[in-house]
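Translate sequence into structure tokens.
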Amino acid sequence: VQLVESGGGLVQPGGSLRLSCAASGFTFIRNQMSWYRQAPGKERELVATITSAGGSTNYADSVKGRFTISRDNFKNMVYLQMNNLKPEDTAVYYCKAALVLNYWGQGTQVTVSS
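Result follows.
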């Protein structure tokens, strides 16, 4: 099993980033996929979820209207488009497969700062 996140970086408030997650080693199309984040000194929190076929999404209240989760089941990829970023979005972002227990990738750092 592998989940490899990428696309993080340093961005100014109001800016945008697109995170990507490459999945392998399991049946991607059967898995609901999620993005989580963990800020320094805080617990990991759920940011967004997309169903296996991509027909339904859910978001944390803190990112609704700013973030969009999507997936490509042909490429085994899941994405997180993040717009109007705020300093409080600063965290390490992880993708997670619902049926793959106890596995987390290395994450990708997002820093929002002027």
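Note: The first strand starts at residue 2 and ends at 6.
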